[in-house]
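Listing S7. Sequence submitted for prediction.
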Amino acid sequence: MKWFLNILGILIILAGVVWFLQGTGLAFATGMMAFDVRWAYAGVAVVIVALIMMLLVNRRKKMPPVK
């Protein structure tokens, strides 16, 4: 399950980066998303959420103390 969520997180991050690049007009500057700052903000938000998801998934669990 962990590997699936990591791959999903990477794909979501890539989508967010594409949204940011389209919204700012830095790449793929054609279509409805081009030069629309709302898509740039949405891309940044998506990347942040995906990074938080990946950090939570990959967080190590605390070991119980040895008695």
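Caption to Listing S7: primary sequence and predicted structure tokens for the chain studied. The radius of gyration is 17 Å. The CA atoms of residues 12 and 28 lie 18 Å apart.
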